[in-house]
Amino acid sequence: MSNTFANFIDGEWVDGPDVSVNINPSNLDDVVGEFARADAEQVERAIRAAADAFPSWSVSTPQQRFDVLDRAGSALLARKEDLGRLLAREEGKTVAEGIGEVGRAGQIFKFFAGEALRIGGEIVPSVRPGMTVEVTREPLGVIGLITPWNFPVAIPAWKIAPALAYGNCVVLKPADLVPASAWELVKIIAEAGAPRGVVNLVMGRGAVVGEALVSSPLVDAISFTGSVATGRAIAARCVESGKKIQLEMGGKNPMVVLDDADLDVAVEACINGSFFSTGQRCTASSRLIVTEGIHDRFVEAMKARMSTLKVGDALVPDTHIGPVVDAKQLQQDEDYIRIAREQGGEVFGGGRVQNAGKGYFLAPALITGTDNSMRINREEVFGPVASVVKAKDYDEALVLANDTEFGLSAGICTTSLRHATHFKRHVRAGMVMVNTATAGVDYHVPFGGRKGSSYGPREQGSYAREFYTVVKTAYVAA
Ligand code: NDP
């Protein structure tokens, strides 16, 4: 028996004309639920509801916004075990990772509850006599939020929480593949007291629901996380219609391992960054750039550590790596492994895992003997696949690290303060990690990249206000 979960429009749960069936990638016989797919007319109603709710919500007191966000944060934290399990069941990350993600979503709501109280302004002496200048921030209006499948609760949370904290109303379109966690999140926010129309949920396909959001003149801004191709197409449309836009997209994140690195630290950072969450993180360490003196020892140690990793059902507690999210992504991972082999790489691991059950199980793959021009080092795989590029020394490693179209996260493992300091300053990425994985970030500081990875203001932390507010300058003559 499966349940049907409705869209949330103007404070009401509304069935759609169609449903998507959410399948557990660890067990293809397990149906998580059937989720309504909205059509363009329902999306329009959701947008209108948000627009109608905006005049009141935008002037609500900081205390009102704090209370809603704080209650939602408390509910997420109280329910992190069961919601973490649901997340693992629909997306395939392990239960521990799922619980961690829901806990993080709860902390994000707590942080932005505080931000609702902290939104001050400036009073600036005018250059003219008898005049005062005030610089304040105001909400934008209706924000369309379009999210991917790999962080089904954290990404919706880190878009909804700041949007509401600063007085905006939202229409969320989660990934069609994993709507269950987002559905629970929206229910929690509604129960936390968000007034009717402030938060709306329209599930379904990007080509229908996402398209309707991007094309509506009532939507003031779009915050998007997903692939480069979709992000760029949406951005072009938003620029044409004058919408504010924020994009977080892919990565090909380098992890540099220098001769002077602590080998154990480097291996743990690379195992975590490359393979945990099945490598399905935009911040995954997918290019391991290793200097000659440590290269062979590093590769052997990685292979030994990879052999200890258990790939299997995400809901089984001792699983280290859950399944790939769906058949299409599994095909993409296997295609990249094959192409890397054809282009001269030597592949360790990377086969289908037998006897793990009826799911999309892939062993982590390490591809050695690659150079930075190979496709495996240019394009995002988004699976448990990492490649190794050998570098002569630190200088060459830095050049290789920067030789990419992306610029989200970059890491270095070294015991040299000089190299760590130089790398922090000169690697062209939005986030830099020293002796720790390229993935795994705090919730109260900015998140984002440069080059092909990101566009527009940063997400998260108090920097989120750059996107979710607009500045007003007022002149007051005494
Ligand atoms: P997609 O770009 O395919 O989808 C992202 C979202 O956009 C989904 O909700 C999708 O809907 C929607 N969408 C698709 N087409 C349109 C359209 N024409 N108009 C409006 N919305 C549309 O990415 P994935 O979900 O497949 O996620 C994987 C990719 O996202 C990877 O490349 C990864 O690098 C990147 N990513 C980046 C992150 C970052 O922070 N930098 C974080 C997470 C992922 P639908 O549900 O139908 O697919």
- Helix content percent band: 25-40%
Number of strands: 21
**Structural domain tally:** 2
Assigned CATH class of the largest domain: Alpha Beta
- End-to-end C-alpha gap: 70 Å
Note the main sheet: 7 strands, mixed
CATH topology of the largest domain: Aldehyde Dehydrogenase, Chain A, domain 1
Radius of gyration: 23 Å
The average pLDDT score comes to 97
Could you describe the 3D structure shown?
The chain has 478 residues and is of the alpha/beta class. The chain folds into 2 domains: 7-249 and 453-477, Aldehyde Dehydrogenase, Chain A, domain 1; 253-434, Aldehyde Dehydrogenase, Chain A, domain 2. 40% of the residues lie in helices and 22% in strands. The protein contains 15 helices and 21 strands. It has helices at 40-57, 62-78, 80-91, 95-118, 154-165, 179-191, 206-215, 228-241, 263-275, 292-306, 327-342, 375-378, 394-402, 417-426, 465-468; strands at residues 4-5, 7-9, 12-14, 18-23, 31-37, 122-125, 131-139, 142-146, 169-173, 199-201, 221-225, 244-248, 253-257, 285-291, 346-349, 365-370, 385-391, 409-413, 431-434, 454-455, 469-477. It has a 7-stranded mixed beta sheet with strand order 15-16-17-14-13-18-19, with helices on both faces. The longest helix has 24 residues, at 95-118. The model has no long low-confidence stretch (mean pLDDT 97). NADPH dihydro-nicotinamide-adenine-dinucleotide phosphate is lined by residues 146-150, 173, 175-176, 205-207, 210-211, 214, 225-227, 230, 234, 248-250, 282, 380, 382, 408, 453. Residues 146-150, 173, 175-176, 205-207, 210-211, 214, 225-227, 230, 234, 248-250, 282, 380, 382, 408, 453 line the site of NADPH dihydro-nicotinamide-adenine-dinucleotide phosphate. Keywords: Oxidoreductase.
